[in-house]
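Hi V.,

You were right to ask for the full record rather than a summary. Here it is.
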Amino acid sequence: MKDTLDGQAQQLYGLVERARLCRREMSDEAERQSLPLTDPARPYGVLVIEATRLLEELERTTDVLGEHWE
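Predicted structure:
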């Protein structure tokens, strides 16, 4: 069971890193295209805000798992 959980934890950490990179790419592309990110009424701004929120939740989750796993 521990081996399975270790593998799943490693997979989750990898997916969080991938999400971090995707969020960064989305923000970079928005800057390149001069999209209005500060206007929450505009769709791309909402996507960036939600991507940031979800990434923060994933990071908190992995932090908690890491603390309890040790």
